[in-house]
Amino acid sequence: MAVATYLDAISQALREEMRRDPNVILLGEDIGAFGGAFKVTRGFLEEFGPERVIDTPISESGFVGAACGAAIEGFRPVVEFQFADFIACAFDQIVNFAAKAYYRWGTPVPVVFRGPSGGGFRGGPFHSQNPEAWFTHVPGLKVVAPSTPYEAKGLLKAAVRDNNPVVYFEHKHLYRRIREDLPDDDFVVEIGKANVKRAGADLTIVTYGAMVHESLEVAERLARDGAEVEVVDLRTLCPLDTETFLASVRKTSRALVVYEAHLTGGFGGEIAAIIADQAFDALDAPVRRVAALDVPIPFSPTLEDAMLPSAASIHRAAIDVLEY
Amino acid sequence: MVPPSPDADRLSTTAAAFLDPALDRTAIAPDVDEDATPAEMRSWYRTMRLTRTFEQKLASLYRQGQIVGAVYLGTGQEAIATGVVGLLRRDDYFSTVARNLSGWFHRGVEPKHVFARWFGKDIPPSHGRELGLFLADLPNFGIAPYHNGSMASWIPSGAGFALAFKLRRQPRVYVAFTGDGATSPGDFYEGLNFAAIHRLPLVVVVESNGFAYSTPATSQMPVRNVADRAPAFDIPAEIAFGNDIFEVRRAARRALQHAREGKGPYMVEFKTFRRRGHGEHDDQGYVPADLRAFWERRDPITLFHDYLTGAGVVPAEALDDIDRACHNLVEQAVDEARAFPDPSPDSVTQRLFA
After folding, report:
1. Which one of A131, B22, B71, B82 is separated from A278 by 20 to 30 angstroms, measured CA to CA?
2. pTM above threshold 0.80
3. How far apart are the first and last CA of chain B?
4. Which residues on chain A are in Cβ contact (under 8 Å) with B143?
């Protein structure tokens, strides 16, 4: 066991997979000598060389398409977007090529797209977004959003070994803030399995990514006031593990869905719909959502704080649902 | 059909814009480097004739409502894919779309299987999920999966296949067939830029047919030729007459050798003309009559037929026999294609993930 940050965990997963499988290659902007904008690949060029750690020109669609071609030919490319926001430039290659090739022709495209996502660190409109719902709408993609170092490492290793395109959202506000002891052995976290992060009988919070930590903070606070909150970390959005959160809601009879992306059309709306559809008779209160306001993510701290969900806004919504 | 006007060769502005008179010819012949045997030449003729016959049948079935959706033909462009694919090695890859049916046939794809795709039948690899024009079958034919009808979109993935070849030290080449209109989207630049930086074995074959759907090249690009864009990548590019199969082979041979020797990407622009609409729903009202007439007198199959018979390489009767055999093969292929089963509705949710 050794302590690792969320960022360390991602680096470890990549390094271990590259040592294990010579077909794993990395493509991205400034990932070589510079080690990546967030230093996830620091030292990789020295260890694996320029044929496996490929600094790309600033052309996301181009290197995503290239990664897909190499993937079909037997490589296991991991593409780093410098910021998840820039994945918009490669949208077409991901949703119209990578996602559909297996359905159309039976051709697997084993490629991982790493998107450093999320706000809360004053990145402004183009360095703070949570674009997971753009991809959960596309059949053929797997979408994961780890919340802890253990899951960041285990899900990334699982993604590299998966035969399908996996969009992997790593929340950059967790990079150096969250740390834990990681096992020394080679472990994976299975894609498609949610995890109950905290047990409770009074309210279910369904969440993922950075909001898991805010939700756990709220659960601790409510516990001191006598309410036991169960926190379900989805970990994977596609394919979705509905059973874990439905079982929890059937137990607590109250559900709050928390996500950092914009409210409208966000993935949490799908969770709320599934609960309404499949656990309606278990509910004692309406399903509520806490999410970011439907405006771009502004730079100024007072503005950003006013639009992102927070422990305070989750707490207020949790009380509403508990007291309904 | 518009009859040729007496002065048909004095082209309208639009028409003159895309074929340099120096490239034009109304008779073709091999050069000294052409080493193809008469049997090989017969096989090119057969491929081109089979393609034309197939497409005529396809259009007829579409007009009768027996094929749903839309169909897309490459009438008049048959020499290009026939010539290029004929020079590929078995382990080379290429990607095409509807205009390059001749490349599929020359590679060995059976007409009945292409018809079956158009009928939406349950046959591998698509099992009715994809239109007949989107053919990809890597294991059997080296026809690479690609993206969609946006023909720039497979330049990046082509660069990726070529990257795989290079990383594995394999002397293989990826050929991306594309069109003049497809050289406007960003993917064209992003893919070629990446390939040029890494000197990847990528050959880009541009079938410059003058129109992107209905929009003439003059409204698509500020340069006269797609090849004029190549200096941005510091790669060689040449322009050739795409209706002359010997010239197609001359240019393609240079391109393939360059790529195979590890010198990086190579662009060949073939001037040609699509004599049908973008799809069969398109009556080509945007094509000037003189332009249509000009290219009808430069039909690639007729040019090749006239060479083969005029030079005594293959007797006219032997070519007539090929024509009849192609006709019979196509008719039989339609019947065989109809006999394949339709996909089960239950299969619609299957095979989403590998």
Report:
1. A131
2. yes
3. 49
4. none
